[in-house]
Amino acid sequence: MAGSGFGRIFRITTWGESHGPALGVVIDGCPAGLTLCEEDIQVFLDRRKPGASPLSTPRSEADKVKILSGVFEGVTTGAPISLMVENTSQRSSDYGEMKDTYRPGHADYCYDAKYGIRDYRGGGRSSGRETIGRVAAGAIASKILSELGISVEAYTSSIGPVKIREGIYSREQVLSCPTAMPDAEADREATEYVKKMAAEKNSVGGTMECVIRHMPAGVGDPVFDKLDALLASAVMSIGAVKAVEIGDGTAVSTLTGRENNDPFTTENGKVTKTTNHSGGILGGISDGTDILVRASVKPTPSIFSPQETVNKNGDSVTLTIAGRHDPVIIPRAVVVMEAMCAITVLDALLVNQSARLQYLKDFYN
Amino acid sequence: MAGSGFGRIFRITTWGESHGPALGVVIDGCPAGLTLCEEDIQVFLDRRKPGASPLSTPRSEADKVKILSGVFEGVTTGAPISLMVENTSQRSSDYGEMKDTYRPGHADYCYDAKYGIRDYRGGGRSSGRETIGRVAAGAIASKILSELGISVEAYTSSIGPVKIREGIYSREQVLSCPTAMPDAEADREATEYVKKMAAEKNSVGGTMECVIRHMPAGVGDPVFDKLDALLASAVMSIGAVKAVEIGDGTAVSTLTGRENNDPFTTENGKVTKTTNHSGGILGGISDGTDILVRASVKPTPSIFSPQETVNKNGDSVTLTIAGRHDPVIIPRAVVVMEAMCAITVLDALLVNQSARLQYLKDFYN
Amino acid sequence: MAGSGFGRIFRITTWGESHGPALGVVIDGCPAGLTLCEEDIQVFLDRRKPGASPLSTPRSEADKVKILSGVFEGVTTGAPISLMVENTSQRSSDYGEMKDTYRPGHADYCYDAKYGIRDYRGGGRSSGRETIGRVAAGAIASKILSELGISVEAYTSSIGPVKIREGIYSREQVLSCPTAMPDAEADREATEYVKKMAAEKNSVGGTMECVIRHMPAGVGDPVFDKLDALLASAVMSIGAVKAVEIGDGTAVSTLTGRENNDPFTTENGKVTKTTNHSGGILGGISDGTDILVRASVKPTPSIFSPQETVNKNGDSVTLTIAGRHDPVIIPRAVVVMEAMCAITVLDALLVNQSARLQYLKDFYN
Amino acid sequence: MAGSGFGRIFRITTWGESHGPALGVVIDGCPAGLTLCEEDIQVFLDRRKPGASPLSTPRSEADKVKILSGVFEGVTTGAPISLMVENTSQRSSDYGEMKDTYRPGHADYCYDAKYGIRDYRGGGRSSGRETIGRVAAGAIASKILSELGISVEAYTSSIGPVKIREGIYSREQVLSCPTAMPDAEADREATEYVKKMAAEKNSVGGTMECVIRHMPAGVGDPVFDKLDALLASAVMSIGAVKAVEIGDGTAVSTLTGRENNDPFTTENGKVTKTTNHSGGILGGISDGTDILVRASVKPTPSIFSPQETVNKNGDSVTLTIAGRHDPVIIPRAVVVMEAMCAITVLDALLVNQSARLQYLKDFYN
């Protein structure tokens, strides 16, 4: 219960530190019968891999995943799936002088306050590399969802002041450009902005969004396990995320009921809505329209300009961070958000099979 | 696992429908030795009670709480605490004609899609009355926190376009005015705004904030049970909340690292920060400064002007809602937010006692 | 997490003390669509009600159950079901002088050691009345199972030296006789034995068994959530149970592999076994044959002869227990065992719907 | 939730198949500050390693454990501890012809019924090798317990008809002899018995016991998380265990209250008992005396004599098992029982820190 587990039926447990021998995840509760190979997972991991773009850290990790259990002759068996990625490019020497200094914007001080001991190399457990396990598990969740016809796609929606234009969307663009924006023009502009700030030894924040399409209505649970509550938790748990919005999000606070209510209608005999301010969820349960989640991500706390802080003894020190750090977190966080949303939605779909007695009867009779 | 439970050690399970005989909550895991009486809980429930202000529904429920278990001679025993509030002012007749019609902005359609059956009277389980159990449990959590010197205070920060002024804060004002705003001037302005919109058979949204003061550093768990992730889930699970922010929230997306990083310093020999953009949490763990959570709440979906929608058969219908509904949700939701934050923080404090071997040794030796 | 919750999807939380105002249970995760009324539950509660036989305590409680939520127009809605039974026959005066004395065989000392406070009236939370919530929830689980064609039947298999004869089984006998034995002759003999021991101010133990018939093969989960592991936990959690056996149970320790292995065969095209030493479970998963669970129950610790013990201050005292206590626990524990087995099996059936990708595809496509 | 997780605060998740690349465990919630190296774990694994005695399978695995995370400079950090053991001696060819045949006494048929697919090599996930993760995690739990002064020791108490003599106990004997019996004479006799049965291509069952000494009073939770209920689940979840007893176990069924009640007394100012029929637990909570757990283990189902069974198509076949199998399970299961008991007790100790408000106050003030 130290917090490294997520999910109810599709349950993942991640492990590993930035500069330990390896990182990984165990997925317990993956349904049997899914065709799965390492390449299915690798394509997701490659999206968060460092060194892939001019905006990302030059630390160059192969991040090759190994399937250690739960798959037999290329098919999942229902047994826990253990996935591992070995660390190969640790440069712990970068961190030696920082072991007693609390980096602003980082969790160093909090880990010391909590545990009294801290693996200071590369942030240890609080490193962005912790997300490798999430992304690997998310690749599997996404594959299952795609077999059900459900797509989960995340992308960068803004970096600093640069926003993507409404209505411009290309998945290929997201998967291939440095910013993970779906809009080539915004990508170019944002790239320039990031490079400029990086040159000033500064860093920038941004927003990312995830759209879940073809979701069946009726998924999610009332009260505390509302689908939006679980998505909020899933996305807020990604390091550097400081806000999560569903549908119109913060904008609802200045809307009126007449503006914000989405009228129901029918389309091809199916209930749907003429607008989607609610972001596909009402009362915590999917309404069958697209689910939209938005996250605000803070600027990379590791900046290369000198900063005032204290060390373990409480002495004031001026810190100049070395090491390898992205000037913007968003582009590589997009696949993490996609993974967390996929895991959350799949888990809700699995739980939902128990909602009605008739489902049980159909299943067992 | 149908979603009515929350918390790991301080675990609550709520139950009850708007128009059933009663609503309540069972709290399992409340530490033994707390002095507790019904009045401790009643003061919290009275803050969410309908009929208390010109902005709230005229449904007038006494909402008197009974302690059914877990307290002996005025002290908690460690056994589950069962709390119950009887419903006394149901007017189901208001809802009869709506049983087959899906109200826009409500969960009616989603419940039907999920369960195939729905208690349509007053929204059933998806009613705002569901929060009675949360508030009752939150009263207990708050009392424990206050014994630890930790305060949890929520308030309305905006209604429609009316925002509270920075630096104006009076807890008495929050607890006594119709809007639950800490700023008397904003309260008057917002009250006028709400009345005007209500007269137009419309409704309005707003924002609310919760501040947790005197929080020890080191509380919260890494990765998925980050304190901010759990707070996000707790607050997003409140009906009508569409966004949750921690600290600077959405504003971080346009900040730079130099602006957003909070420098560490020491004060009276204790590590603290000179600014608090992070909202008291770094890496999911409390840093010892004030925790700030913000929620955006949508306008009440039940408006009295006619709306286009469909019924169970998919026929288009024009719906005019009857019944008793607040034109703004926020003022009565504030105490719900406070309750959810208190429960979340207390639970994290309880879990945290297991973080170090030395704690175990101190405890058992 | 103080231990009053059980189950993963069909999740129950019980509450209440022997001499508090009421006891009850909240069931979260009951599938929607089950026809349910109070009488369905009452027939189970009446089986554990005191005062119903010459072997049971003269405390005469009506133990009438009320459904407070989760049922609408006679059908479950998927919302949590809250059930309550009011205490009406408390005689706390019986316990006043024992509040500082630790009764042998009871949990008094342990509760004091754990919580530092104890509701001493009638055992408080550790009273046999705690099982009211279990039995009420078990009635619902049993009703669902019966709709799936699965029966769960418990009975007394021995009291002191008196054992039921093999092959004699009448459910009517179990439900109507004082001992809950399926064998009328053994019932008479055991009744005499209990009366004799009661006359000597002594008490007796026994064994009870539960058979689950028409269980589908493939239910239960590997490793830690094995069906037999969960049944063991469910049954051992009943006060006074000191051993749980599956199938041949303790007898396997002196069998050889050739004797103990059950040969597989086919019957009407279905795989089955020619013997059932395993008690219907292999590797923690049901094999489609009858599941057999056996429990050993200690003699009632409350005996009326004087006993040596200590009080809170550690002084030696001689205790003579007053109050109303059965000379044998088994007959009224049988329905508790039946309830716990039903809940456990239903929960495993619900979880099992997620075992294969194909099930998900069939469900959502 | 597919069942490979155990524990509430000290939470383990095991993974791996008999003939996959590796097996392992992730421990989330291990307190920070424990000195830990691979050798601490290896000594436990060596006790269950095959090939170490004349009674065990000649499959010779090195079973060398690697710590992949959660330990920094030889000390646990509070981060999840990932442990891995690589499989090196797989001989899948032994199993090829059995892939469609259901071995009596094994879980083959049940896995097929549940998942529709099965890793048939060496039993896959249902292999005894699954316990490697349990033993590795148990080594850590045991080390923590020993720092608290609590010992957990398991041993073989009978094999077939051969029982250990009362009062003869040597831990060294347990750790060094082929049967893991604490009694050298019984060890010799049992060894002869096993060899004889093995020569007859048969196998034998037995019993094992675990004693937990120096346990503080007041640990364990009421109702469903009773310490005995959790121990029952923990031990019954070990493959081949068919019965779990606490204290006098099945014997209580023929005892009277006067015989079975343990009188309380005081010793050095501490409450204790003059006898221990209850096995150290009353009402699910430790009473400060030794905890005794007993398990009955069935004979190895893999015997080398021909057996009648069916294949996947339901055809009757005669099966003669090849491969490497112990003629008795107990001696290598003893360390697994010890591990499971250690994990269960440690977890209960961790949970117990939250029992009283005063504990929280002492901790945070």
What keyword list fits this structure?
homotetramer, 365 residues, globular, five-stranded antiparallel beta sheet, 18 strands, alpha+beta, Chorismate synthase, AroC fold
Polypeptide structure, described:
Four copies of one chain form a homotetramer. Chain A has 365 residues and is of the alpha+beta class. The first copy, chain A, has one domain (5-364): Chorismate synthase AroC (Chorismate synthase, AroC fold), CATH 3.60.150. The first copy, chain A, contains nine helices and 18 strands. In chain A, the strands form six sheets. A five-stranded antiparallel β-sheet of chain A has the order 1-2-3-7-4, with helices on one face. Chain A has a five-stranded antiparallel β-sheet with strand order 9-8-10-16-11. In chain A, strands 5-6 form a two-stranded antiparallel sheet. In chain A, strand 2 (11-16) and strand 3 form a beta hairpin. In chain A, helix 1 crosses helix 8 (330-352), helix 3 (131-147) packs across helix 8 and helix 6 runs antiparallel to helix 8 (330-352). The radius of gyration of chain A is 21 Å and the shape is globular. The two termini of chain A are 38 Å apart. Chains in contact: A-B, A-C, A-D, B-C, B-D, C-D. Chains B and C meet through strand 2, strand 3 and strand 7 of B and strand 2, strand 3 and strand 7 of C.
